[in-house]
Amino acid sequence: MFKNKLMVVPAIWRVGRVCACRIGLGLMVLLAISAGRLQAQNSDSGLRREFRVKYLAAGAVYLDHGTNAGLEEGMILEVRRKQTGTESKKEASAAPAGVIAEIRVLSVALASAVCEVVSSTGEITVGALAFLKEAEIEKVTERNDLGTTRKYPQVVAFTEGDPLDEEVRAFVPRPPLPEINRARGLIGFEYGGLRLGGPFASSTSQLGLVLRADVSRIGASYWGLSGYWRGRFDTQSGGGGLGAQSLDELINRTYHMQLTYSNPHSPWVAGFGRLYLPWASGLNTLDGGYFGRRLGPNATAGIFAGSTPDPTSWNYDPNRRIGGTFINFEGGSFESFRYTSTFGLGVSTRGWQADRQFVFAENGLFYKNLISIYHYLQADRPRIPNSTAVNMPNLTGVSRSFLTFRVQPVRRFSIDFNHNYFRDLPTFDPALISTGLVDQLLFQGFSVGGRVELPKTISIYNSLGRSSATGDARSSLNQMYGVTMGRIWKTGIRGDVRYSEFNSSFGRGNYSALSLSRSFRDTLRWEFVTGKQNLVSSFTRNSSYRSLGGNITWFPKTPVYFEAGFTRQQGTIQDYNQWYIGLGYRFDSFTQRRAVREAK
Q1: Where in the chain is the domain with CATH 2.40.160?
Q2: Dihedral (C-alpha) 225, 230, 236, 237: value to the nearest 10 degrees?
Q3: Could you tell me the CA-to-CA distances from 211 to 39, 579, 588, 593 in Å, in that order?
Q4: Angle CA(502)–CA(503)–CA(504) in degrees, nearest 5?
Q5: Most buried pick, 153, 242, 263, 409, via CB within 10 A?
Q6: Residue 591: its pLDDT value, please?
Q7: Among candidate residues 452, 109, 60, 418, the one with its CA nearest the CA of residue 258
Q8: Nearest C-alpha neighbor of 379 from the set 363, 394, 401
């Protein structure tokens, strides 16, 4: 009997060991499941759901964040009515009627992204919010659940064998991500003509080139090329020429094309081309570049240099060059309070002669979608010629200040309060007044604006303010009114009409404009624009003109696309007809590779 007891002890020990192993295995599986659920809950915590439209340019939509907020090429976002106030994220995402367009991310930089319009039923405006679709968020969540090691585990299927004896499954390399070496965009050629009327009648033939590029992770690196550019070149002239750029050519100069470097594993950032300084958009467009280094999770410092080619800039001069250094601090959460603050100093030149030294500060404070405050300030000391220095006062001090405070108490209503100040006269090109691109520069002083969205995709917006420039004997009223219809009756045509009166330190006048457009999915789009402008100024030539223009673009189911357009402008200074036809090629290396794989 004693012997039997001795034999029972090892048996009990073996059974206990097997039970302990299986219990341990069960605990490990339970912990893995719990960790997976926790990771699924937090895997997209660094992904921002909403983005703000900061710039628009001929079919391209620029967003205010990029890889720093989780955006990637190819993502689809829904653009909704302008969000500047109190609407919560839950409320914003719960109203499909508020969706006015779908956009696709073409290119992503560190702090900005370029998108194309996939479809639209209303006007996309600066300040509107774009929301990631749920399908995109689920993709990011699923990818993050697999980790960031660029490997994924094979599925383990347990058999009737003991799991403790199963071999650990090997890891296999993850296939290359689709954005690596992906090249998308279009290239097109145009031919047209420009005929000048009046006493100096002449005609000019023009050749043009259009380029839209979205090349991400070039050569598997962290360099990317993105942007849109259109230019025309005169080939022959039968007279004295236009003497000034046409309205189309001025608008073309507002486009951006940039080569950027953004590596999440490196502290260095860089960008070159025609672009914004990502941390200080108040400096306007640069033809040049920047180079910076992250000093931590919330700080970046660097240098910038270039010319200022954008004719909508408040200090526009075709011969101006600027350069300087900056430091940026940003932090907080998009779910509550966040901030961004940039400080810098630089020098401005005309040609190669120093014009002025300047310091600048750009600050933004945001609380959820309830309140947004933005302020840009620049102070400088202009260079005064010796011949006039005796009679000129000391102009050292603030040369420009712009403050805006925006609130949206309900989803369909937003209001903003602004203050604008210029010490020197703005030098933007006055031919752009009727386009609405320079409304911000038409007056000084306080103003208030609002936007109300009515049923049937109708929006009403306006801006009123007292303009009081330095030295004015009395203030004057500036006003702008507009109506947008996302869909006129049942035609699917989108319309926008606006009227503005202004009285500023450089002149007074008014303008009115009407635009109609229609998109047929991704196949066909046409647009018609007309307007008139009156300007009386002692600092530039008085002008009064009427303009009429339109364009049509056809994208058949082939890579080839066709485009045509015309402009008729009749005025006291410029009187001309301009037309063009274009033929181009669209490309997408990822789609082409996928087609080859499917063919095999």
Answers
A1: 184-235+259-264+507-600
A2: -140
A3: 42, 19, 14, 22
A4: 115
A5: 242
A6: 62
A7: 109
A8: 401
Q: How many CA atoms lie within 13 A of 105 on its CB side?
A: 27
In DSSP notation, 355-366 reads EEEEEEEEEEEE
Reading the block at residue 153, the tokens are 């585990």
Nearest in space to 463 (alpha carbons), one of 409, 515, 406: 406
Question: Would you say 218 and 225 are in contact if contact means Cβ atoms under 8 Å apart?
Answer: yes
Tokens of 428: 């933007």
352 DSSP assignment: T
State pTM to two decimals: 0.64
How many degrees, rounded to 5, is the angle at CA 362 between CA 360 and CA 367? 165
For residues 442 and 478, the answer to whether their CB atoms sit within 8 Å is: yes
Residue with tokens 């070039």: 218
Residue 160: other Cβ atoms inside 10 A = 4
Helix (H, G, I), strand (E, B) or coil at 163: helix
> Nearest 5 degrees, angle CA 318-CA 324-CA 328?
120
Closest CA to 266 of 291, 303, 240, 244: 291
Can you tell me whether residue 130 is helix, strand or coil? strand
pLDDT of residue 483: 95
Residue type present at position 158: F
Classified by CATH at the fold level, domain 50-145 comes out as Thrombin, subunit H (2.40.10)
Kindly report, as residue ranges, where domains of CATH 2.40.10.410 are found in the chain. 50-145
CA distance 483 to 40: 45
pLDDT at 319: 87
SS (H, E, C) 75-95: CEEEEEEECCCCCCHHHHCCC
Q: Enumerate residue ranges in the chain where pLDDT < 50.
A: 1-13, 15, 18, 20, 29, 31-45, 83-97, 147-174, 239-242, 386-392, 596
> What are 494's two structure tokens?
């989108």
Residues composing the chain: 600
Q: Is 220 helix (H, G, I), strand (E, B) or coil?
A: helix
pLDDT at 173: 47
Would you give the DSSP letter of residue 43?
Answer: T
Please name the CATH architecture into which domain 184-235+259-264+507-600 falls. Beta Barrel (2.40)
Residue 59, Ramachandran bin (φ over 0: left; ψ between -120 and 50: alpha; else beta):
left
Q: Which residues contact 597 (CB under 8 A, 6 or more apart)?
A: none
Which candidate, 127, 53, 50, places its Cα nearest to that of 90?
Answer: 50
Q: How far apart are CA 205 and CA 197, in angstroms?
A: 15
Interatomic CA distance for residues 113 and 179, integer angstroms: 14
Residue that the structure tokens 């789609």 belong to: 591
